[in-house]
Amino acid sequence: MKALDAGAWPEQYYADGIMKAVVVHETGDVDVLRVHEVPRPTPGPDEIVIRVAACGVCTLDVATRSGIYRRGVELPLIPGHEISGRVVAVGAKAIEFLVGDRVATTQRFAICGHCRLCRNGYEALCTQRRFLGQQGFRGGYAEYVAVQVDNVAKVPDEVSDEQAAIAACAIGTSLNAVRDVGRVSMGERVMITGAGGGLGVHALQLARAAGAWVLAQTTSPDKADLLVRLGAHEVLVSDRGEDFSDRVKKLTGGDGVDVVIDNVGTPVFDAARRSLATNGRWMLVGQLGGEFVSFNPAQLFLKNQSIMSVHSTSKTQLEDTLALIARGVVHPVISMACELDQLPLVHRSMEEGAVTGRVVIRAGRASS
Ligand code: ZN
Ligand code: ZN
Ligand code: ZN
User: Which of 33, 178, 309, 326 could connect to 158 by a Cys-Cys bridge, CB 3.0–4.6 Å?
Assistant: First the structure.
């Protein structure tokens, strides 16, 4: 373990002793994920400090660590934006929370709280938003993290720490896609791409809960059984890069699907477009890799098809997701819990597509 290079952290972070955290000083291969000792956060006026019980490992973490994703990223950083734990310190104005409360975060640590977007339930899009795990010391690959209260929800007793950690990003984003942006309704035919991944396994359950006929696409044959157990009416195992649209058409009487929930992006773009029925809706949720795509707009508007975007999760969507977990409507799929020093192996497995659902790390568990 390496001690922190002084100077990289704001003064408030020196007040409360040290903690263990994974600090990324430079982007690159998985070995840049090294455990360091860094200052423990103290809360700003409208913040709470959470002892991290669990933190989900997201494909965005992998893209940030490798350097593929750069937008808003400032090094050094502690990755991790899918956090649950107990409140251990409360800022002077953070009156909604008490020390000891069980909480979960959205993907952000700060928003402005008063712009038009913030006031209308779209705070995930606030121009002042700051993403957890993208800048400096605010991330969940650590024993403690400080977060503004606007980005935190209380966790029902029925929901475990591991489940609560992934509620916002892995499940709430899919709730946003299926319910709020996609407006999936009973009897519609929905295809989930990348259905075995952290988003896909939950989008699948939510589309089922909405009453849809669900087609789960995956490139991993060994995930097919799980996808059926989670409620898929059909599982389509395709090769990487395969245009599987003819197979989708066959499974839908020649029509294609009414809704695509796309967690993959560029690698399935052409196949997803050709799989979409006339008047279909296409939710862009995830993007693996950095390649651009090309298409002719007429290919879409002549069939009255729409492309829509789904980004992140509001606090309300997080609260709704936690309630759906507590009521047994959606079952979080967590394949493994691990410790900070295992993160290089976890990132490697994710790059190889070998992870089903989510892996969570339990950085602050030992000190509880
Ligand atoms: Zn260092
Ligand atoms: Zn995430
Ligand atoms: Zn705002």
Answer: 326
